[in-house]
Design goal:
The two termini are 66 Å apart. By secondary structure, this protein is mainly alpha-helical. Strands 1-2-3 form a 3-stranded antiparallel β-sheet, with no helix packed on it. It is elongated. The longest helix has 27 residues. The protein has 4 helices and 3 strands. A hairpin with a 7-residue loop joins strand 2 and strand 3. Helix 2 packs across helix 3.
């Protein structure tokens, strides 16, 4: 409908006040059909003041509409149907918010103010030189000890390097051990994999550390 009035939009909304669903197991094609039948019957019975119940499934000698007439109108509502599943929303789009003339003028003025503020925000973001603090800027390999140039960040309890005499060292000469409050209160042992990369944490606890 070109340039519909608000009253016309409200009338079309009334015709969409049928039951919708998003229930699991529902068949899309079935509900598209049901929506179109409901809206066709509503248009005929409310706006045209005719009966159309029989014409859904057969011609009736006392009905003003034949099945052909009914489904000719049905085709219009079927082609303009909403999605079969409503997504469990209170109001399935499209919806119309009704306002008074005074409210419409105020909303228009507020929208203009918001557009100005949004533009200022976009410009400020574009001019801001942001660097993600979590971005990895350097990767170092761990082999028996930390490199002297490597900047070490430690949270929680202090780190400790142990030798084979102090605890298990699966590869190389030293292992990094960290302790935490695990489900059994046991220390966590992290074993550097000699020369070939890294090996995941072995043990129980709250940490998940890879070296």
């Amino acid at each position: 409908m070109p340039d519909p009035t608000r009253d016309q939009l409200i009338a079309s909304g009334f015709n969409r006040c049928n039951v919708t669903t998003s229930e699991g197991g529902s068949i899309n094609e079935e509900w598209i059909h049901r929506y179109a039948v409901d809206r066709t019957s509503t248009a005929v019975e409310v706006w045209m003041g005719l009966t159309a119940g029989c014409a859904v499934c057969h011609d009736h000698k006392f009905d003003p509409l034949s099945m052909k007439d009914y489904y000719s109108l049905y085709a219009f509502f079927h082609s303009a149907a909403d999605p079969a599943m409503d997504g469990n929303k209170i109001d399935t789009p499209p919806i119309l918010k009704l306002t008074s003339p005074e409210d419409r003028d105020r909303i228009k003025a507020l929208d203009a103010q918001l557009a100005t503020v949004d533009e200022k925000i976009r410009k400020a973001i574009a001019d801001f030189d942001y660097a993600d603090p979590a971005q990895v800027v350097e990767t170092i390999w761990f082999e028996d000890d930390f490199q002297p140039k490597g900047k070490q960040h430690v949270t929680g309890r202090p780190k400790k390097l142990i030798t084979k005499a102090e605890g298990p060292v699966f590869s190389g000469k030293q292992a990094l051990t960290r302790s935490g409050e695990g489900i059994a209160g046991l220390p966590l042992w992290i074993y550097p994999k000699h020369r070939t990369g890294y090996q995941p944490l072995v043990g129980l606890g709250r940490y998940q550390i890879f070296v």
